[in-house]
Amino acid sequence: MQDLRKLLKLLLENEIDFVLIGGFAAVVHGSTLVTQDLDICSSMSIQNIEKLREVLKDFNPVHRMNRKANLSFLDHPKSLEGLNNIYLDTDLGILDILSATQPAGDFKTIKHNSIQINIYGHTCNVISIDDLIKVKSSMKRPKDLQAVEELIKIKNLP
Amino acid sequence: MNTLRSKLNKLEDESKDLLTAAISSKLFLSIEERLDSHENARQLVNDLSNATKEISAGSQEAS
């Protein structure tokens, strides 16, 4: 059963190097729009990916781009070098892992600009509102454009 | 320029595939599963909304 709280806790407790992005990052900044997928921008170092595999090993992480192929993240890809994005379905919910969030920048840039929140007893990096606006502005989906409008209003609140 | 266009097209296709995959996975959930899913997301929204923002030298926002 979906348990996104548990998923986020696992990432934090196991010191995965990531920045929260996407819809739940927008929630941190005050957005009212709903989402049910956990999106993170993450270091794609071999060490971090191996840690992710270890963290997710009991939760059936499967690559969701080609669901019919039923490829487990635990085995695929074989080579961990040069990974860009990983889109997973897990027993705890959907987890999308991006190496960069253009046009805001790569993971290093996003992390440098990020804010920190304290949640579940841990510090969690969250994409800055400026970077989030940049990213969502570049997307064409109606829900992202709606999020941009809202985030700009939030940013300009007194 | 062609390389950039090709990259953008690839990203758009990838985005469409993801959307299709996401819709397909949720389409056959029972009502109860959908309610549980919404409730779980709501709980995370609650936790994130109530999380305290930390003040640091490099941060752009402060609590």
Describe the secondary-structure layout.
The complex is a heterodimer of chains A (158) and B (63).
Chain A: H1 4-13, E1 18-21, H2 22-29, E2 37-42, H3 46-56, E3 62-63, E4 85-90, E5 93-98, E6 100-101, E7 105-106, H4 107-113, E8 115-119, E9 122-126, H5 129-137, H6 142-155
Helix pairs in contact in A: 5-6
Chain B: H1 2-27, H2 31-50, E1 52-54
Would you kindly provide a written description of the structure presented here, covering whatever features stand out?
The complex is a heterodimer of chains A (158) and B (63). Chain A has 158 residues and is an alpha+beta fold. Chain A has 6 helices and 9 strands, in the order H-E-H-E-H-E-E-E-E-E-H-E-E-H-H. In chain A, the strands form 3 sheets. In chain A, strands 1-2-5-4-3 form a 5-stranded mixed beta sheet, with helices on both faces. In chain A, strands 6-7 form a two-stranded antiparallel ribbon. In chain A, strands 8-9 form a two-stranded antiparallel sheet. In chain A, strand 6 and strand 7 form a beta hairpin. In chain A, helix 5 (129-137) packs antiparallel against helix 6. The longest helix of chain A has 14 residues, at 142-155. Chain A is globular. Chain A starts with a helix and ends with a helix. With 63 residues, chain B is mostly helical. Helix content of chain B is 73%, strand content 5%. Chain B contains 2 helices and 1 strand; from the N terminus they run H-H-E. Chain B is flat, with a radius of gyration of 19 Å. Chain B starts with a helix and ends in a 9-residue tail after the last strand. In chain B, 6% of the residues are buried. Chain A binds chain B through residues 1-5, 8, 24, 27-30, 34-37, 64-65, 67, 85, 87, 89, 93-94, 96, 112-120, 123-124, 128-130, 139, 141, and chain B through 14-15, 17-18, 21-22, 24-25, 33, 36-38, 40-41, 43-45, 47-49, 51-54, 56, 58-61.
